[in-house]
Amino acid sequence: MTNTAPRLTLGQPAPDVTLVDIHNQPVQLAGFWANGPTLLNFLRHYG
To answer: What pTM value is reported for the model?
Structure first.
């Protein structure tokens, strides 16, 4: 598998993406930025 996304460097803002929350609803990342810095945590699921 090849990664075609550009790499981010330290201090560079993350792209505004839409992700799916735990209720399977789309959530836009920019909606969290309005309240301050945002931390994303991705978990791998093996099952």
So the answer is: 0.51
